[in-house]
TrEMBL record:
One of its GO terms (molecular function) is oxidoreductase activity. This is Heme A synthase. The chain crosses the membrane at residues 12-33, 64-85, 97-124, 130-151, 163-183, 195-215, 222-240, 252-270. It comes from the Archaea. Its main location: membrane. GO terms for biological process: heme biosynthetic process. InterPro entries: COX15/CtaA_fam (IPR003780), COX15/CtaA_HemeA_synthase (IPR050450). It is found in: Membrane. One of its GO terms (cellular component) is membrane. Keywords: Cell membrane, Disulfide bond, Heme biosynthesis, Iron, Membrane, Metal-binding, Oxidoreductase, Transmembrane, Transmembrane helix.
Length: 288
């Protein structure tokens, strides 16, 4: 029992909740991209007069499954906040509580898009989808920060070493996301491609948040650069959700934002590599 309790720690629970939220956002993008948000005859909690629709890949099932995962994720977010108040520090409590505060807003926007969209002007429309994504990304950011705060006292590597790893993950994720990006015309921007793009981009978002957090005390310039890449990537992700009419000019802007994000992350990686090489052998770096 002791080993089990030691394994089930707050930091691992927070990390799992964050990963579950990433999966939910990806599923939400796929649901919207396939038009399945208009399924279930705009009913809730029933779906086309059924509690559980036919378990085959169809619009009703996709929308129903998204609702189920959203409900489970919501309970995990509540559990993370509750555990933070019991075992976490002040910052993890604040971040997780803000995530809980945003849950009703996210649920409301979701309801507008899939149930009462016909009663609200622009209910099921790209701007509403963008708002849904913005709130979801904010919740994901807060949960990522909660996880980072929870792991703060459990690192064996110094901040720069951790940051190099995070920047490497972010750069790799960005390069992969470019294969599916709407701004980089390599593949058809199908529902599956959209889901993959946002899944991999969220990995990059999480890695950049970690790098920004760890560099805040070790390399402020590097932290600002990583944070800038985070903002640029966030803008590119919003453009992919039709925040504005996606014209050829907007696609070029999206293309430019993507390569700007890649360039900034590569610059941060080079900066960290150069800084490490300039440190004399045997000199250690402080850890936060």
């Amino acid at each position: 029992m002791t080993d089990r309790l030691d394994w089930l720690s707050f930091r691992r629970f927070a990390a799992f909740t964050t990963a579950l939220t990433l999966s939910l956002i990806t599923l939400g993008v796929y649901t919207a991209a396939t038009g399945s948000g208009l399924a279930c005859q705009a009913q809730w909690p029933l779906c086309s007069d059924q509690l559980i629709p036919a378990l085959t890949i169809n619009p009703d099932f996709i929308e129903w499954f998204h609702r189920v995962v959203a409900m489970i994720t919501g309970f995990f977010i509540l559990g993370t906040a509750g555990w933070a108040w019991k075992r976490g520090d002040r910052r993890s409590r604040l971040a997780s509580t803000l995530a809980v505060v945003l849950l009703p807003l996210q649920i409301t926007v979701g309801a507008i898009t899939v149930t009462i969209g016909g009663l609200v002007p622009g209910g099921y429309s790209p701007p509403t989808h963008a708002a849904h994504l913005v709130v979801a990304l904010t919740i994901f950011t807060l949960l990522t920060l909660t996880t980072l705060f929870a792991f703060r006292q459990h690192h064996r590597r110094p901040p720069r070493a951790r940051s190099r790893l995070a920047v490497g993950v972010a750069l790799g994720a960005l390069l992969v996301s470019g294969l599916f990006s709407r701004g980089v015309p390599l593949l058809n921007y199908s529902p599956g491609a959209q889901a993959w793009y946002y899944a991999v981009s969220l990995v990059a978002i999480g890695a950049l948040l970690a790098a920004t957090f760890w560099l805040s005390t070790a390399d402020r310039v590097g932290a600002w650069l990583a944070g800038g890449a985070l903002v640029v990537l966030f803008g590119a992700m919003l453009l992919g959700r039709d925040l504005v009419l996606y014209t050829a000019a907007v696609q070029r802007l999206n293309f430019a934002l993507y390569f700007l994000a890649v360039g900034i992350v590569a610059a941060v990686g080079w900066r960290l590599r150069s800084n490490v090489e300039s440190v004399p052998t045997g000199q250690s770096t402080s850890s936060n």
